[in-house]
Design brief:
Blueprint: H1 3-12, E1 13-15, H2 18-33, E2 39-43, H3 50-62, E3 73-77, E4 80-82, E5 85-86, H4 88-99, H5 117-131, E6 135-139, H6 150-167, E7 170-175, H7 180-183, H8 187-190, E8 193-197, H9 205-219, H10 234-241, H11 245-261, H12 269-273, H13 278-295, E9 328-330
Parallel strand pairs: 2-7, 2-8, 3-6, 6-7
Antiparallel strand pairs: 1-9, 4-5
Length: 333
């Protein structure tokens, strides 16, 4: 058994499934048909595949047939850099670098640190207009909420909306569910806003079947001990991943590392149990539940402790037949 080959294949395998494909088609068409100044938010659970989808979106929207001086789409990842809080100045500098402003590209002259944010904002606007930028994609956009006050968080979202409106660009936020708490509070933002969800595999009959197919696909790559598979431990795996493919890959790689650390050559359930904590599962599950409530127009549910939370019994029918594997293809996350 070559564990390096197994892990490499697992990292590079892209599973094509209906939720991913539908979400991509919806996001692409909303972007392609949107009016200038529109804001589109794509929300979903952690590790569901939002970042990978955003890379695919960028290629599909603009391709490579444009003038070298043009940058029809720029993409940045929001980062909290000011003592754990978001810095609007740093965000502006990120966008300037992405647009290829001559003062901010790597290895070029850097603007003086004392120049005011209003000046670099004007430089950003002129840079976007000069480059013909039509789409501004902000990945990990929930980091924009890491501010010292809720009012400032909403102000940053409004500022990005204003940037799109001023430059006739479409702003796309790729985010966790928490952005919903703030984006719906601004009437002006909501007048230009479309919100889409990249959902995890649900617990209904369709989600049950699709997730089982996914497990069958991944099982074919793994060195399981006799009688043990992801499918055999389906309920445990679903609960631990919340039905997200990225979480499944992450957890499986951890289990393989645990197997190798023990000097064993066959994967077993214990390797998974050792590498996933209940507190992790609970935090992610609460985030998904709260996000779906807000998307449904309901107020966020209060968080209760484990001791107060009632035990829920599964109502899904037991697994009855071996599912088909999903189509896969090579690629990088």
């Amino acid at each position: 058994m070559d564990i390096e080959k197994i892990t490499k294949r697992l990292r590079q395998t892209i599973v094509s499934h209906p939720y991913y494909n539908l979400t991509f088609r919806r996001l692409f068409n909303h972007c392609a048909l949107a009016q200038p100044g529109t804001v589109i938010t794509l929300v979903g659970p952690t590790r569901v595949g939002k970042t990978m989808l955003s890379h695919k979106l960028a290629k599909a929207l603009v391709g490579e047939n444009h003038h070298p001086e043009q940058r029809p789409l720029i993409r940045v990842e929001a980062a909290a850099t000011d003592g754990g809080f978001i810095s609007s100045r740093y965000m502006t500098l990120q966008l300037l670098s992405a647009v290829g402003h001559p003062f901010h590209e790597v290895g070029s002259y850097e603007i003086r640190s004392k120049d005011p944010e209003s000046l670099i904002r004007r430089q950003l606007v002129s840079g976007l207009e000069y480059r013909g930028t039509k789409f501004i994609v902000i990945d990990e956009a929930h980091h924009l909420l890491r501010t010292k006050s809720n009012r400032k968080a909403e102000g940053i979202l409004d500022s990005m909306k204003c940037l799109g409106n001023e430059t006739k660009s479409i702003v796309v936020f790729i985010s966790g569910y928490e952005i919903l708490r703030h984006q719906y509070r601004s009437a002006h933002l909501n007048g230009r806003l479309h919100t889409l969800e990249f959902s995890n595999y649900g617990e209904d009959e369709e989600g049950h079947e699709l997730f089982s197919r996914l497990l069958a696909t991944v099982d074919a790559m793994l060195p399981w001990a006799r009688g043990q598979t992801l499918l055999a431990h389906r309920e445990l795996i679903y609960r631990g991943t919340s039905g997200c493919y990225g979480q499944l890959v992450h957890w499986t790689l951890g289990a393989l590392a645990e197997m190798a650390a023990r000097g064993e050559s066959a994967l077993r359930k214990i390797h998974f149990l050792e590498t996933r904590k209940e507190v992790q599962i609970d935090v992610i599950r609460q985030d998904i539940e709260e996000g779906k409530r807000m998307l449904a127009g309901l107020p966020p549910s209060p968080r209760v402790s484990d001791e107060a939370r009632p035990t829920e019994k599964s109502t899904r029918r037991p697994f009855q037949r071996r599912p088909k594997r999903d189509p896969v293809g090579g690629g990088s996350d």
